[in-house]
Write a structure and sequence with these properties.
The chain has 163 residues and is α+β, with helices and mostly antiparallel strands. It has five helices and five strands.
């Protein structure tokens, strides 16, 4: 039996809300959108480096398994930010009626309103003109480059850390 005596770390993960100008139809198109000037670089990660081809292949695969987000879905993802913005979200306790029942419609409506407002603040506008996807990568299973390599630096995006 082997005993590890070196550094051991906790795993982390991050979600990314990323805007694309259109729905990519190929790995090559993803690569051109993500790395228009840096098409042949290695992206550094904690455990190993990835080429832009490898990153584009993975992102295209993830796009194929997903769907473009609705504005409501974008807003809901952004409510999980850890920058204090989520503190503005309505508290469910404030929607309990005198008889003890919950006013779920009021709570959901007010939550969506705040999330939409937060989305506009984070992106600077309502990202209606763009195709928006949600990605989630962790630093285990060889994904540290995807999580920490700033792979979306050429696209409007928001990173949500789940450390």
């Amino acid at each position: 039996m082997k005993t590890r005596t070196g550094f051991v770390s906790n795993s982390s993960s991050s979600s990314f809300i990323v805007t694309f100008p259109k729905i990519p139809e190929s790995v090559e198109e993803v690569k051109k959108i993500m790395f228009p000037k840096d098409s042949e670089i290695d992206i550094e990660g904690y455990d190993y480096n990835m080429t832009t081809d490898e990153v584009a292949t993975r992102v295209f695969s993830d796009i194929q398994k997903s769907h473009p987000l609705t504005f409501k879905e974008i807003s809901e993802h952004l409510t999980h930010l850890h920058d204090g913005a989520a503190g503005r979200m309505p508290k469910y306790q404030n929607y309990i009626r005198i008889d003890g029942s919950m006013n779920w419609n009021g709570y959901e409506e007010d939550s969506l309103y705040e999330a939409v407002d937060m989305t506009k603040r984070r992106f600077g506008y309502a990202p209606i003109k763009f195709i928006v996807y949600h990605f989630c990568y962790s630093d285990e299973s060889g994904e540290s480059t995807l999580e920490h390599g700033d792979i979306f630096h050429n696209l409007l995006h928001v990173r949500i850390s789940h450390h």
